[in-house]
């Protein structure tokens, strides 16, 4: 196994792992228990996403697309205060 992604926090690690899992790449998220070690401080940089060596190339391609994705800000309400349909 190798580290394919170093996340800022455990939530980001699970988002990336979920994206990779949805594409058939088996993942392991490490760093869960390190969060408690930092106490009240903002825990960052301890969560990693691991993949088996045979998934490395595919995972790198998917992560490149993920990191280049553009953020789309969807409005929570229109000018009249109504939620968008759909």
UniProtKB/TrEMBL annotation:
Superkingdom as given in the UniProt entry:
Bacteria
Start and end residues of each DUF2007 domain: 1-66
Name the InterPro entries on file: DUF2007 (IPR018551)
Q: What is this protein called?
A: DUF2007 domain-containing protein
Q: Which organism is it from?
A: Alishewanella tabrizica
